[in-house]
Structure formats: C-alpha cells, structure tokens
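We emphasize that the prediction below concerns an isolated chain of 361 residues; any contacts that depend on oligomerization or on bound cofactors are therefore not represented. The input was used exactly as deposited, without trimming of termini.
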Amino acid sequence: MSSRGETYLFTLRAGFIIDALISIILILVLQYYRLKGLQFQYMDVFYLCIMLVPAYFYFYREHRRILRRPSASYTLGSRDHPKRHVIKFLALKFCLLGVIFAVSDPVFGEEERAIPTQKGDIMVCLDLSRSMDVNDINNTSRLEAGRNLLKSMVNKLSGQRIGLCVFAQNSVIQLPLTRDYDQFKLMLSEANTNHFSNQGTNIGSALVKAMSSFEKKRATNTILLITDGEDHEASLFSLVDSLIVTNTKLLSIAVGTESGGPVLRSDKKSMRLDTKGNIILSKVDLVMVKKLAKATKGLWFHITETFPNPDAILTEINLASTGYSRDLKFKVEQRVFHISLILALISFFIYVLIPFRTNRK
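Result of the prediction step, given as a token string:
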C-alpha cells in the first residue's frame, strides 16, 4: 500500500474514532443531565439528525476524490489536505448538532425570581343587563367597549390580583381574585348578556359580592364598576358606608352615550318595543354614576370610545395601592439553549478558519 493510501486510512480511521468518542461523550452527558431534569420542549426537531446520513456518505465520497487527485495539483502542505477535510467535516457536523439542540429549546432546573407587585386587589363589577347590548358607541355595543377597556388595562397591571363579578338583577363572582391575567381575559371574552335569565340592574348586589371577596388587610382595594348606570334598585346608596369602612375605593365607569340607542331582544337582532309599539331606547345614566362617585368619594369616568385608553383609571388604581412589595416569588424554568448555540458557534469558527490547503510561498 502506498504512503498516500496509508495516510488516507490513518486519517479516516482517526477521524471516525474521534467522531465516535465525541458522540459517545455527548450522549452520556445528555443522559446524565436528563436524569437530573433536563428536558427538551420540541423533541421532533431531533428528526433533523437524519440529515447526517447523507452527510456521511458525501464526506466519504469527497474524501476519496481528494485522495485520487494528482499530487502536482496541490500546493505546499497538501499532504495535510485529507486531515483538514476530516476536521472541517467534524466541525460542521457538531455545528449542526448544536443548532438542533438549541432549536429543541432545552430547559434545565428552576430559579426563583422576585417580582415587584403592587398591593391592593381589584374586583371588576361588569354589568350584563340587556341595555349593555345597545350599539351606541361607534356602532359597537357598550359591553364590547367595556371589554376592550378591561383587556387593555389588565395588560398594564403591576402584579395586582384581579377578579370578575358579573351582574344583572343577580350577581355572581365569575372569577375569584387571581394573578392569572390570561384567565381573566378568557372569562371576560365569554361574558355576555344571556348569562342571566332574570334581567334588571342591581348594582348594590354586585358591590356587596365584590366587597366580600376581598381579604381583610390594610391595603386599599378597588372596585371597578362598569355599567350604563340604569340601576333599578333603591338600596344602592346604603352601601356607601360599607365601602368606606372596608377601605374600598370605588371607580365608577359609565359606558354609553347620552343620546342612547335601541334595546335589543335576546336574539340581538330585533328591537324591543313598549306596550304602545314604540322602540325602547336606553341612555347612559350619568346622573346616577356621578352621585355614586360623589357619595363614595371616588371618581367616575365616561366611556364613549370603542377602544378606551385605560391610563387614567390605572393611575387611580395605583394611587390607591400602598406601594410596592417584592415578596411575590415565582419559580421559573431556566432555558439553556444558549449553551448549544455557543458550541455551534465554536464549531462553525473552526470550520471557517481551517483552510483546505496552504498557499505556496
């Protein structure tokens, strides 16, 4: 066997041995850390490793082709050309593996993070009476405008707990106080005026339910009342003292226009008529909302836009809080994809920086 053939066999054999050793070490390290809790979020990505089969075939064929080239076609140092080819192939292979591991999104261990949160809970009282279906806000229903306000607001909260109380003639705590804002938005989207068969507007009942959901503590809690103001009960203002005693701040939000619009039936297509056959109109009751805000020493807001800006309301909620607290801690899984990317980057640099052959001097 020629010296070039012996060099070829030695280089190829050494390359495969190195490849096998590194691969075995990598598999053992991964198995060790998997027992320690390492997980991959996207296991299907590892099917890309099948690409290594044609890559090995191409490498072997190219290596044979390099060896058969006449020595006269090589420049000085060409004897190291097969060795460089093996090194560059291994570097490219482990670069691909590093990218595959990174894309699989490996997660290992947990870390505790202190999240700055504001004290003080928020209970939303959302009116679901039939009049909330009136489309008098730029051809949008009052309920939809209220939903848009709340969704925009909850995206800007600073860790406060929030709950949802829906009401008409009766009231129900639809969602207890929580920091799961996605769940709140989901429950909010499902709220509609068909929730209650017994129609009417009993704001007082909703406020009682909201106050009972708060824990007894020094922080000022907030009730966010969203209604068109058409309260049908006379006992509302008897709750004023209870709000003050329980250190609860009431923010009253009137939704709808003063010109109003027709009240729809339960099918939300036809309009309701009175006994004389006239269309029943619903107008926002700003007088009632203003009186309630004045009696409770709170503020009131009037919503007449499809997508209201929640900043003024958020300011009042934050002012009601007693400052920031850092005692809320979450356990967060540590994503370690960057380690795989670093290994892939190192392998890529090795591939790029090692030339196939040296230049003649």
